[in-house]
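Sequence in, structure out. Go.
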Amino acid sequence: PYPVRSGSVTRIGRALDNEIVVSHSSVSRHHASIENSNGVFAVKDLNSQNGTFVGNQRVTEPTRVSDGDAVRFGDAQFTFRG
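Output:
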């Protein structure tokens, strides 16, 4: 499990300066972010090369995620628990 902090932005990517580091070749150095604003979680793609997906839909603007949603960064898939 990876914690997402309330009231702040959690960055995901290969680089070590991200809050969640994903060591997978399909994940960009600064791939995506998840923000929790008033209990609503949204994932945002940070111009990654291989895309960010919620379910099978590519994220092109901040997209709400809910408990149990499949979230994929490149080829690295996770299940969101919020």
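Check: Strands lie at 9-13, 20-21, 32-37, 40-45, 52-54, 57-58, 63-65, 70-73, 76-79. The CA atoms of residues 33 and 63 lie 11 Å apart.
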